[in-house]
Structures are given as structure tokens and as C-alpha cells.
Amino acid sequence: MARVLTDRSIITGSGAQRHATWLELFFDLVVVAAVATLGEQLHDDHSISGVLRFAGLLAVVWWVWISYSYFADLFDEDGPVDRVAQLAAMLGTAVLAVTLANGVGEGSRILALTCCALFVLLALLYATAARPEPEAAELCRWYAFGSGLGAVMWAVSAFVPVPGRWWMWGAAVVANAAVSGPIAYARMRSAPAQASHMPERFGLFTIVVLGEAVLAVVRGVDATEWATGPVVSAMAGFVVAACIWWVYFDAFDESAIDRAIEGGRRAQVRAFLYGYGHLLIFAAVVAAGAGVELGIAEAAQGDAAPALLGWASTAVIAGFVLISQGIGLSVHPVAIAAKALVVVTSVVVAVVSVPATAGAVAVAGAWLLLVLVEVRLSSATANPPGPIDERSTPRSPGT
Description:
The protein has 399 residues and is an all-alpha fold. The chain has 2 domains: 174 residues, no CATH class; 184 residues, no CATH class.
């Protein structure tokens, strides 16, 4: 077993293009169980404190997901040990989902100790991966240290009274994310070459959370009568989800991480805006789904649109800007104007008391205009048929 545990090497660009394994897809679905729980809690409590609690707990779940996903991106060859490690992480994530479903009161110590165990396991995985792979040894030491630091902070938090315990959780995620990320790549002598499929993982998880948003729309319609206002609000909510999908995937760049690794230290560190920026997109999409569900209920009562939908829509645009900046891609001025219109419309819906149906339609209309701009720009800048110029730079979401 010891030989199997250490007989691994970093996955480089040699061979066929990499794609997510079936187990990685299974992992995504387990994680979304926790995400769905948090979305339901946000629907029930969308006050400022409820939004902050949702964002903080989602960051914890997301950090577990991305931490194990990046290890798999580096070393996972879908062997027995890799599968056992991923399954253990999935079990821990399932425990988190159950704990979150019961709130973070009495179960908060269980959540902290579960996260501690998950990051102890991850630190051990990095430590064993460093031994047979000299090229990745320095990276593994940094990531093992970051995971170990996070594990210690999670363990300590279990014995800190609330609300100090929650602040410790935030500190653990921030410290771990800083060390096992931009600090490591900034301080390493050289980053190991790799063939990354993290953009695909981000894309797949985006689809999953968009599905959760559509499910929220379905729940909203199911809880009301088939009246004009709720139905129109539901259709507008679906249009928003579809437009987010369109803008994100219309210019999807599966080589974003590979280019950053090849681009040198500055590009590598900046690329963490791309990776970590997806947390904002995931959170905003889930929040938008909860906002649409609330809006459907408000439409049935003839009340004003919920502010949650407008702020969530704004946050999605902010996430697009972050990930575009993370891989150094420029945005067409017309696309900037279209995105600004989405932001302005969404903020107006959030701060001005407008009817729920009208608010949902306005936000959906702004998003639909952005898609039309994207389509027009894509048609205008399409290259004529011919040899592919490998030096060309793909567009970013929202360009």
C-alpha cells in the first residue's frame, strides 16, 4: 500500500486531453447537496445576516470542493487510492450537508471537526505526492503546509465559543486559500508543468448550480397558483438562468489554467482571481435562484420584487469581471456597456420598490440584451475559415 500511495506523478500535457472522471462528477453532485441546503436557508432568511451566513458557509463547502478538485487536477490518475481519497472527501462533504441542514448551532463543532479531518487527509495526500515527483515537490510542500494550517485552525475552532468559532472558520479558509494558492505560486522557484482540466470542473459546477437555480424556479411555481404574475416571473427567472449560461459558456476557455501556468509567476498568481472568482459566480447564481423563488411568491401577492434577485444578478456580473481579469482578457467596450446596463437595472430593482413581476422582467430583459450583444460581437469578430493561430487569445465570459 505504501508503494501505491507514493507511486504517482504530476499529470502533464503528454497524452490525450484530460476530462473530468465519473467520480469527480459524483463529487460535484454530493457537494451540490450542501449547496442546495444553503440555498433553501437563504430563501427562508434573506436578511443581511442570512446572506452573510449563506456566503460564509458556502465558502467553506466550496473550499473543500476546490481543494480536493485541484489535487485531483494535479495527481489524480483515477487509481484505487485516488478513488478512496475522493470518496472520503465526498463522505465528509455529505456530513457537512447534514450538519448544515440542522443549522450551525449545536452541529457547528461537528462541522469544524469534519473540516479538520478533511484537510488533514489532504495534507497527507500532498505530503506523499511530493516524494516521487521532484518537479512538484515544492508545490506539494506549500499545499501540505496550507492544508495542515487550515486543519489546525479548524480543530481549534471546535473548542472556541460561538460566535468566535465562526470567525475562526473564516480565518481558516482565508489562511488556507492564501497559502495553498497565490502565496505558494508567488514563492515557488518554478511551477510544475501540468495539463489542467480545472476550467472544465468550474464549467460543470456552474451547470450544476444553474440547475439548482432552475429547481428554485420550479419550487416557486409549485407553491403558487398558475396566475399571470407568478408565471411571468418564473419565465423571467428561467431567462436569467439561460442567459447566465449563454454568457459564461459562449466564450468558455478550457486552456485558461494551462496558459496561466505557462505565462510565468505573475500570470500564475493572477489566475487565482479566475479560480477564486468562481466562488462569487456560484454563490450569486444560487442566490439568484432563491431571489426568483421569492419573487414568484411576491408576484402572487402583488408585492414588490425582492432585493435579493437584483443584488445576486449584480454579483454574477462582478464574478464575470473577476474571472476575466484573472486570465488577463480584455472586454469589448460594447460588452462593457451591456454589462453595465445589467448592473444598473439589477441595482434599481434591488433598491426601488417595483412590482415583483416587473422587476423580474426588467432583469431578464437586461440579461437578454447582453446575450444579443454577445452574439453580435461573436459574429462580427469571427475568424474566417483557415489554419488556427495558436497565439490568438480566446474571449472571456462577457466579452
